Amino acid sequence: RNVTNVNQELSELDKKHFLHPTSPIKQQQEHGPAFIFTKGDGVYLEDVNGNRVIDGMSSLWNVNIGHGRKELGQAAMEQMNELAFSSCFATFSNEPAIRLAAKLAEITPGDLSTTFFTSGGSESNDTAYKLARHYWILKGMPQKKKIISCEKSYHGVAMGATSATGLKPFRDFTNSLAPDFYYTEHLSAQALRETIEAEGPETIAAFIAEPVQGAGGVHIVSEDYFKEVRELCNHYNILLITDEVITGFGRTGKAFGMEHYGVTPDMMCLAKGITSGYAQLGGVVLSESIHKDFMERSNGTLLHGYTYSGHPMACAVALRNIEIIENENLVENARNMGEEMLKGFQWIQGERDLVGEVRGLGLMGAVEILSQGKEPLAPAIVNEAASRGLICRSVVFDNQDTLVFAPPLTINKQEVEQMIEILHDAIHAIE
Ligand code: PLP
């Protein structure tokens, strides 16, 4: 199968008029799009030439309930026909936003209770940093404004979200970032303590981390890490923000990633799986006590809001999506199929010399490639896998040479086996 053999007209128009997000510009100009997708069905995507591939990344770690779910189209249509949009600014509201906020309070851990809606993960992160800083202003400690994040982290591309992103190439893309962002070694509570001490806890508003680092290469923390982080944040009076943009809504085999560690953050950032990508939506869920402080201490207007905060159609889609995740036991399926996927990686590790460490938590997985200091091989394996019918992603930041995976939570055993077989053959072909 020739993956570049796509519809010529679309390909030329794409090259000429479409600047792609997070894309290799020269390659795009030379070859045009590798796939122009026209259809989705379960774990499969189909392109203009009728090529069918397994979406081993749930597109961008987000299509949790799989492609082609007509129920979500139905939910969107019904809401749009009733009320496509109305504002949530000031004291206006709408039923899907209210019901979704209440549903999130029910399903998120601990005392997380109140949601501020956004249109995606980057906006959720920027919102969390601004709300954290505003919180300390309200508490009479305006000097607490630094945000600490982890090396190798990814928090999005809005100015604040990029500034918090630990993957340096994303920060180096532009030459001036938001001030007061600092980084600490990932996976190490001791390193966080040292960073807090060095920066001065009285100047720090919040620490943010992903429960499992995604774009940075699927790095899974030790069991005690977040407990220690929670203790440090309590001790130094620092807010804990967790970025569950990828890990939320069942991805890791629990409803939310932090449930693996028994820790509740003060704020939780959501997006992606909240609608499984069927509409643009994100949110920040605040703990009851933070919400109470906002209520008791604010006397002006909360001057932060997006036009689409609480978009009725997006919220209606999210509600239906969450219902599907619950009714079809997709969190449990992610846990079970995640184990199958990891077993598959371990089998490939035994078969192929090129494979180093393999990792997984639920349906987030990684396979390290042993390029031994030479050019990374993961990008070539990704291309080879795509031509054989599997989409996955390479991570080559920070001298890594890693393949990452995040198939839809609806995947079944046979589809996992198909994924593993294609991956094995792709690695074999590159060896
Ligand atoms: N946070 C994490 C952990 C992410 O993985 C992403 C996107 O990949 C974002 C934030 C940014 O979300 P968005 O692309 O919806 O702005």
Automatic annotation (TrEMBL):
A GO MF term: transaminase activity
Cited Gene3D superfamilies: Aspartate Aminotransferase, domain 1, Type I PLP-dependent aspartate aminotransferase-like (Major domain)
Cross-referenced CDD domains: OAT_like (cd00610)
Alphabetical keyword list: Aminotransferase, Pyridoxal phosphate, Transferase
Pfam families to which the protein is assigned, alphabetical: Aminotran_3
UniProt-listed InterPro entries: Aminotrans_3, Aminotrans_3_PPA_site, PyrdxlP-dep_Trfase, PyrdxlP-dep_Trfase_major, PyrdxlP-dep_Trfase_small
Keyword Repressor among UniProt keywords: no
Family: Belongs to the class-III pyridoxal-phosphate-dependent aminotransferase family.
Name under which the protein is recorded: Aspartate aminotransferase family protein
Lineage, opening ranks: Bacteria, Bacillati, Bacillota, Bacilli, Bacillales
